Amino acid sequence: MSVFQVISLIITLVALFGYLNHRFIGLPDIIGITAMGLVVSLIVTAVGATNPEVTQWATATMREVNFSEVVFHGLLGMLLFAGSLHVNLAELAGEKWVILVMATAGVVLSTVLVGMGLYYAAPLLGLGLPFIYCLLFGALIAPTDPIAVLGLLRKAGVEKTLQTRITGESLFNDGTGVVLFLTLLGLVTGAGEASVPQAIWLLAREVAGGLIFGIAAGFAGFYLLKTIDSYAVEILVTLSMATAGYSAAEALHLSAPIAVVVMGLIVGNHGKRFAMSDHTREQLFSFWELTDELLNLLLFGLIGLEVIALSISVRDLLPALIAIPIVLVARWISVALPIGALRQMRQFSPHTIKLMTWGGLRGGISIALALSLPAFAGRETLIAATYVVVIFSILVQALTMGPLVRWLGASTGDA
């Protein structure tokens, strides 16, 4: 099949999943589409037992889609820009210390805890996973993706402060998580820095460089928006920021996700107030809101369908299932310790740790990173573990977030 035919098929399937979900099931779009994609994948796999040519065709078709490439060089920049565009910078600044600590120390702590948990659990399952690869799994599973849960939080009436904390953490921990993963990967492959101190310096340089580049590119875009009044051209300017800005940051070996988030925050706050006419503001924000929705539906549809292309054996399922409690416990600790340290500076309700733990969903970034792992004996096991954790977070954590909020009585008050 040609690239156009593959893209057309995926869009058609995701549209069909969305229609059937709305017509007959009624789950939130992202959850319903992911679930239906997963069901179709399992049906195709089961059919392969009697009609192997069907599975072979489906597998070959899905493998024409380079999931990592689609995420990192297709969707991520635009999704992060769209997400940060709608974040109130004043509210974000009010929670800056919580977000900063969670998106940096929290990510590192989660990486180490997950890595250690998996390293010590693996021998009990008859597996011998090198510690550095367990750390790689910890790094790729650390970034949270709250897209599916934020709508449920709003519907449940959770206080705005918690929404800001979860959103801010997810926007920035994508960048730190990816940089940490790539830094560890460089140590494994020998393509990166040779020592841990040098790796730490590389991590700091990419994060700080991404921030500085994002500020510079963001205000350059702000100037362009301010000096014209044409909503079509201004939308093109923002598209170039989300795509060319992302690519330029990568070429400079800076954190492209962090750079794009900063650009989006500048355009969505200063640009919105000082650089756009009312008509442009309405058109531009409507465009990015729709783009955000459509790209997310496609991404989560792909997550459901991607299992067709994975070489997951029954042997990999038990370690994958064990990864779920390891990741949840690590998430709880990596939320509880920073919040405990910040209680002298900020006020937190008793439910904050529970909600931030259960609301720490994983998504496409984790799968994309897992698929980029180099070949080694336990690669398929880690890919299976990543996929199972992501599916669990979307189908179980996201779907039960609303009931959890109501059960805790956290629909009102400061979170």
Report on this model:
The protein has 415 residues and is mostly helical. Helix content is 79%, strand content 0%. Helix 17 packs antiparallel against helix 18 (379-408). The longest helix is centred in the middle third of the chain and has 31 residues, at 196-226. The radius of gyration is 21 Å and the shape is globular.
Strand residue percentage? under 5%
The biggest beta sheet, please? none
Q: How many DSSP H or I helices? A: 18
Shape: globular
Q: What is the SS-derived class?
A: mainly alpha
User: What is the class in the CATH system?
Assistant: Mainly Alpha
DSSP helix fraction? over 70%
Number of strands: 0
Order of helices and strands: HHHHHHHHHHHHHHHHHH
**Radius of gyration from the CA trace?**
21 Å
CATH domain fold name: Na+/H+ antiporter like fold
Average per-residue pLDDT, rounded, comes to: 90
* CATH architecture assignment: Up-down Bundle
Q: Give the low-confidence spans.
A: none
Domains (count): 1
Report, as a whole number of angstroms, the end-to-end distance.
51 Å
Set out the fold topology.
Layout: H1 3-25, H2 29-47, H3 52-63, H4 67-85, H5 89-94, H6 96-103, H7 105-121, H8 131-141, H9 147-156, H10 160-189, H11 196-226, H12 231-251, H13 256-274, H14 278-305, H15 314-342, H16 352-358, H17 364-371, H18 379-408
Helix pairs in contact: 1-2, 1-14, 2-3, 2-14, 2-18, 4-12, 4-13, 4-14, 4-17, 6-10, 6-15, 7-8, 7-15, 8-10, 9-10, 9-18, 10-11, 10-13, 11-12, 11-13, 12-13, 12-14, 15-16, 15-18, 17-18
